[in-house]
Design goal:
Blueprint (H helix, E strand, L loop, with lengths): L4 H10 L3 H8 L7 H24 L1
Length: about 55
């Protein structure tokens, strides 16, 4: 994460992704491995639940 921070800062500063820039300016926003893992896991589980619902009905 530390190694990629300058790259993230450069992408954010370029202004091409305003939503990303807005997130990084939020004082409550933290980007750490635990947060990234939880985010990805939730999306994966939500997708699996949707697929189960679609095939069950």
């Amino acid at each position: 994460m530390v190694r990629n921070e300058p790259r993230f800062d450069a992408i954010s500063a370029a202004g091409s992704y305003p939503l990303l820039s807005g997130l990084s300016e939020d004082p409550e926003f933290t980007l750490d491995l635990g947060t990234l893992f939880e985010f990805g896991l939730r999306r994966t589980l939500d997708s699996i639940a949707t697929m189960i619902d679609e095939t069950s009905g």
